[in-house]
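FW: tagging you since you asked about this chain on Friday. Here's the raw sequence from the shared folder, copied in full. Didn't touch anything.
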Amino acid sequence: MRLLIVANRDKPAVVAALQGLLPRIKQKFQVVDVDTDHKADLSKTESDAILALGGDGTLLSAARRLGGRQIPLLGVNFGRLGFLASFTPQQFEEHFETFAAGKLPVSARLVIEASVVPCGDPCNVADRQQVTARRRFTAPALNDAVITAGAPFHMIELEIAADGGDEGINGGAGVRYFGDGVIVSTASGSTAYNVSAGGPIISPNVDALCITPLCPHSLSFRPVVISSNSTVLVTATRLNAGTTLWCDGQQGTRLEAGERTIIRKRPEPVLLVENPDAREWHTLAEKLNWAASPGYNNRK
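HL: got it, structure written out here
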């Protein structure tokens, strides 16, 4: 089996682990490359699997650079949380032979795509081909697409619509609100920025998107979960000079008033190699201290 290794050399523990793992890996795999700059296009890699050493950011970078290629990704977490990079170094050692045999479970994770159409362009946003032809920016996201207010950090005004047919998306049937921006997350990304902003935790096997407003100037605008087949349209009404669209916090573009951001599911999912030892509720309790009782006088 051919293996591409993506390693975050900014983490000293990754450098040490890679040196220790390479001899064993080379006994079982043909290592086609060791990517450490996180810039190379991986869409043409001749590998059968990808090993990401670092954390969720390292895995997100590799997933984005695959450009839709269906190559399983296994993430080993050397960071803090590690929801997507679900293996600890010890667990990877324990499951190494099973991974080499190609017998670890693999799940298909939904990926969204955010496209920005210039102000004044009559593009029908329900028409994927028109959007592809006229957009000035596009990027995929495994976790989330976020519009954030930016400097000078005044409230911005956005109009948000989710489709109920072509006329609903293009006919201005959205809601306008003031706030600090909006998050559109996948179920995989619901435990990232979304949950920090008060959005719900969504099980990774639920085919859904979540729209979570950032500090809305309203008591009634709450997060909403919609079908992953929906198209989300965000129109920039009043912005700051620094208002920016970010995809997975890694690719972004400044937005101008009147521009439309279209967010929809990509046809190609990302394939993640799952940790057979991980259990969803246990992972939430362990990594987020979820449902833990308050500590009284430093007692638990």
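FW: The mean pLDDT is 91.
HL: agreed, and The radius of gyration is 20 Å.
FW: great, closing this out.
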